[in-house]
Every structure is written in structure tokens, then in C-alpha cells.
Automatic annotation (TrEMBL):
Keywords of this entry: Cell membrane, Membrane, Transmembrane, Transmembrane helix
Matching SUPFAM superfamilies: PhoU-like
This protein's name: Na/Pi cotransporter
Biological source species: Parasedimentitalea denitrificans
Cell location: Cell membrane
Length: 560
């Protein structure tokens, strides 16, 4: 019974730790996620890029999250391999600094964090304040989970079971290394895994030598997490996580053998305690960053040889845009038909995103060929809408049922929204980009920054909208609706600031005043169409009254 009770307590503490780490990361991503692109892609030196990685890992509570963000921007061509690898290496050090912060005994802080975070999250409506409350609650839950972990170990610490396992891991450091790697990968969080190891050493449940091997293994295992999560990305994205794994794995194995030989020879003395283990973890990651940073360019050449992409690119160019996934001759049963519709909507959304992504670049370059290429894609979006309408019309009404018919109509409604969003890009934003070039206009620094932030926010909302479309997740739909409201507020504030600049006599604001205001309106309308995917889910779950739904639809028609 004691073993069963121990396993339940350990599982509960571990799950709470994982949930808390994720809670903190979610709060920060929802508050500042749209700013990550500008931060990641604006670095000019490898040292600066690595420091950005350190900061982002501390903010996101995860080096894997930094690696995935970096891989995504590398796939889109917005980030070079060398800069991306430097950011990821810095992220590993930032993750180690999190361990140092959280390893302090801060149990006295828990009630204050729970009180402040709970009030912000439950009582305050402002989005960023609510997410700050989520972050504070997450930190409190991390500290509570570590306390639970220490308490779970108390009943068996003096038994014969745990000392036997601990002594074995101390003697067989290779097994301890592999256990640590597996633990980090299974938990999908190096922070959680290493905090667990540090806590075990702090309470003398395992000796320092076993803890060191476990931590080195967890460092190695954490390198597999972004490799696994990025497996479906383009090869240019996967090179960075693989290079990070190669560097981390090599240095972890070298350090494992060197450290254990030094411990057994007595060269390092007799290190004890969890804090010393934290220092060892910090030294490992700091030394890896210092040693690997000068070789980022060499790693690029190596990874390009190991993971070439020339053949893939040739195929992509020859293939052109992805083909329609709808089979008009074989609609299939309702579940299959709705799945096909959803896949086609995702393809349509991807086309619209491809049109929208380079809009601000067009404002700067005014390249006529690029403008025409974006405008030409609008016909493909129109064809998607036509195909979806035809496919829905071909679905047999006597077989599909009322609920499935309603879902199909909602999908057609969203396809119409996407087509209208494509028109906003092709017929308004690209035309405005041409006017900027024609007038040789220049935005004020403040105005351009406002447009850039709105653009980044909309791109983040497009990714969120695709997640809502795939998952039908209520929380994501609610968040998308809140993001729509937040963008409306940002657009309104930008308009007010622009008018204040005009009143102040700013010549650069006068030059592009009409274009700036029209761009704001177009961006707001585009985002409203994208966010419409959330309405059916909110309505079905009682989160949106029918009268409110009608008001939303009518209000957006007036904007158009």
C-alpha cells in the first residue's frame, strides 16, 4: 500500500508540475505572442541572438518552445540557420536560469501569488492583466507541486527501496543518463524533469552523482523534444533542432564521462546538495553556448549536407499550389464529407495567409511584380469558395442530417469570410502598397510600428483560427474572440495617435495620412473575417447569444 500511495502522490505532483509550467507559458504566449516575430527576426549578431534566446526561454519557461518558434520562422525564410541556432543555444541557457530561480524555497510566496493571480484572472476583464494572473497562478502551482514532490518522497526516503535504486544509479551513470533523457522526453519539459532531479537531491533521496547523471541525461533528452515536435515541418526548419540535438548530445556525453571520472578520482571533492546540482546544470549550458557559438556557420554547412533540400524545392516549384482536396464525384458519408470540407478550408486559409503575410513588405518595396503575384492568388481563393459551395450542394440532404447540415453551412459561411478577406488583400491593401510607391510616401516611425504590430497580431490570429477550425476547441474560440476585440481596440488607439500626430504638425504623418487610416480599416476588417470561425463554437456552447451573433454579423457588414 505504501508503494501505491507513493506512486499516486508522485504522479499527482508531476502532473501538477507539468500543468503549471504549461500554464505560465500559455499566459505569456497569449499576452505577448504576436511580438515574438519581431524580437526573433531583428537580431544582427550571434551574441545578441543568443541573449534573446536566454530571455525568451525565461519568459516562455521552455527552451523547446523557443526552438519551435525559431524553427517556424526559419521555415518561412525570415530567420537564417546561424541566427536561429544561436537563439536556440541561448534558450537552453535561459531554461537553466529558470531552474536556478525556481529551485529556491519560495513556499512563503505561494499565498500572495495565489491571491494576486486569482483576483486578476477571475475578476479583471483586461486581457493582459488576466493573462498576468494566469502567469502568477502558474508560478504558485509550480512551487506547490515541488512541495508535494518533497512530501511524496518522505515516506520512502528511509526505506530500503529508494536507497537501493539511488546507489545503483550512482554506480551505473550510463543508465542514470538514459533515465534522465527518457524522463525529460516523456514529460516534454526539461524544466519539470530537472526540477524533479534537483528536488530529489535536495531532500537526500538520491546522491549528487546520480543526480548529475540524471540532469545531464535530461539535457540530452530535452534536445529530442523540438526534434519530435518539428517532424512535420520543412527541412529548413528541422535543421536547427537537429543541430541543437547534435551539439547538446555530444557535449552531454563528453561531460557525463569526464564528470563521473573526476568524481570517482576525487578531483571535484565531495559536492553535495541540490544547489550544487543547479550550478552544474548552469555551467553545462553556459559552456555549451560559449563553445558552440563560434561554430554555428560550420554547423550550417554540415546540416545542409546531412539534410539537403534542393530536391524538395524543385518538387515544390514544379507542383505549384496545393491541389483541391474535394472529390466532387464521391462526396462520401457525412463524417467523411465534413472532414474533406475542413481540409479544403484549411487550404483556403493557407492561401489567404500567403497573400497577407508579405503585405507590409510590399508597402516598403512597391514591387509591381510581387503585387501582381499576390493579386493573382485571389482567383485561387475564389476557386476554393466555388468548389466548397459545389461540394456542399452535392451532399445528399436526406442522409446528412440536421446537425451535419448546420456544420456544413457554417463552413460555407467561413469560406465566404475567407474569400472576402482575400479581396481585402487583393483589392485594397495591395492597391494601397502601390500608392505608397507611386507617391514615394514615408510613414512616421511610430505609425509604421503600429501597423507592424497589427500585422503581427493578425498573423498570430490566423494561426489561432486554423487551430479553432481543426479542433473546435471552446477555449481557443473564446481566445480568438478576445483577440478580435483587442485588435479593434489597438486599431482605434492607432487612429487616435495618428490624429494627434497630425495635430502636432508631423510632416511624415501628413504624407501618408489617408493610406495609414485606410490600412487600419482594412486590417481590422481582414481580422474580423478571420475571427468569424469562432462564432459557431461560441454560440453552440452558450458563449454567444443569437442577438449578439446577429449584431456581430451586421456590424462587420457595415465595416465592409
Amino acid at each position: 500500500m505504501a508503494i501505491v500511495s507513493f506512486m499516486i502522490s508522485l504522479a499527482g505532483a508531476t502532473m501538477l508540475l507539468l500543468f503549471a509550467v504549461r500554464m505560465v507559458r500559455t499566459g505569456i504566449e497569449r499576452s505577448y505572442g504576436a511580438s515574438f516575430q519581431r524580437v526573433l527576426t531583428g537580431q544582427r549578431s550571434l551574441t545578441q541572438a543568443s541573449m534573446v534566446g536566454v530571455a525568451l526561454a525565461i519568459v516562455l519557461q521552455s527552451s523547446a518552445a523557443v526552438a519551435l518558434l525559431t524553427a517556424g520562422f526559419a521555415a518561412s525564410g525570415m530567420l537564417s540557420f546561424t541566427t536561429g541556432l544561436a537563439i536556440v543555444l541561448g534558450g537552453d541557457l535561459g531554461s537553466a536560469l529558470i531552474i536556478q530561480i525556481l529551485s529556491f524555497k519560495l513556499d512563503w510566496l505561494v499565498p500572495a501569488l495565489l491571491a494576486a493571480g486569482g483576483y486578476m484572472f477571475v475578476k479583471v476583464e483586461a486581457r493582459k492583466v488576466r493573462q498576468l494572473g494566469r502567469i502568477l497562478l502558474g508560478v504558485a502551482f509550480i512551487l506547490i507541486s515541488l512541495r508535494f514532490l518533497r512530501e511524496a518522497m518522505d515516506p520512502i526516503r528511509d526505506s530500503a527501496f529508494l536507497p537501493a535504486i539511488a546507489e545503483y544509479l550512482a554506480r551505473d551513470y550510463i543508465t542514470a543518463f538514459l533515465v534522465g533523457a527518457a524522463l525529460a522526453f516523456v514529460m516534454h519539459s526539461s524544466v519539470a524533469a530537472i526540477l524533479m532531479c534537483v528536488t530529489l537531491v535536495q531532500i537526500d533521496a538520491i546522491p549528487f552523482a546520480a543526480g548529475l547523471s540524471l540532469v545531464l541525461g535530461a539535457n540530452f533528452g530535452s534536445g529530442f523534444i523540438p526534434v519530435w515536435l518539428s517532424r512535420g515541418m520543412d527541412v529548413s526548419a528541422r535543421r536547427i533542432p537537429f543541430a541543437n540535438l547534435l551539439l547538446r548530445g555530444t557535449w552531454a556525453v563528453i561531460t557525463l564521462f569526464a564528470a563521473n571520472m573526476a568524481l570517482r578520482a576525487g578531483v571535484l571533492g565531495d559536492p553535495q546538495g541540490g544547489q550544487m546540482l543547479v550550478y552544474a546544470h548552469l555551467m553545462f549550458n553556459a559552456s555549451l553556448l560559449v563553445l558552440a557559438l563560434p561554430f554555428c556557420e560550420s554547423c550550417r554547412r554540415l546540416m545542409e549536407r546531412l539534410m539537403p533540400d534542393a530536391a524538395v524545392k524543385d518538387i515544390e516549384v514544379a507542383a505549384g499550389p496545393p491541389p483541391c482536396v474535394l472529390d466532387f464525384d464521391n462526396v462520401g458519408p457525412p463524417a467523411q464529407a465534413l472532414f474533406s470540407l475542413k481540409r479544403e478550408l484549411l487550404r483556403m486559409a493557407a492561401l489567404v495567409e500567403t497573400m497577407f503575410r508579405p503585405v507590409l513588405d510590399l508597402y516598403q518595396t512597391g514591387d509591381k511584380n510581387q503585387i501582381k503575384a499576390v493579386q493573382a492568388m485571389d482567383s485561387e481563393v475564389n476557386e476554393c469558395l466555388s468548389g466548397i459551395r459545389t461540394f456542399v450542394a452535392a451532399m445528399p440532404p436526406d442522409e446528412i442530417g440536421k446537425a451535419n447540415a448546420k456544420t456544413a453551412r457554417d463552413m460555407v459561411e467561413y469560406a465566404i469570410r475567407l474569400e472576402t478577406a482575400g479581396d481585402v488583400v487583393a483589392k485594397r491593401l495591395t492597391v494601397l502598397a502601390g500608392e505608397v510607391k507611386k507617391k514615394n510616401g514615408k510613414f512616421s516611425d511610430e505609425g509604421w510600428m503600429e501597423l507592424t504590430r497589427l500585422h503581427e497580431s493578425i498573423l498570430a490570429n490566423m494561426r489561432l483560427a486554423s487551430n479553432v477550425l481543426v479542433s473546435d476547441d471552446l477555449e481557443s474560440a473564446r481566445l480568438l474572440s478576445l483577440e478580435k476585440t483587442e485588435l479593434k481596440r489597438a486599431e482605434r488607439d492607432s487612429r487616435k495617435r495618428h490624429l494627434k500626430r497630425l495635430q502636432g504638425g508631423r510632416a511624415d504623418s501628413f504624407e501618408t495620412s489617408d493610406i495609414h487610416l485606410e490600412t487600419l480599416r482594412a486590417l481590422r476588417e481582414f481580422n474580423s473575417h478571420i475571427a468569424a470561425v469562432a462564432y459557431p463554437i461560441l454560440y453552440q456552447n452558450g458563449q454567444l447569444l443569437e442577438t449578439r451573433l446577429i449584431e456581430e454579423m451586421q456590424g462587420e457588414q457595415l465595416e465592409t
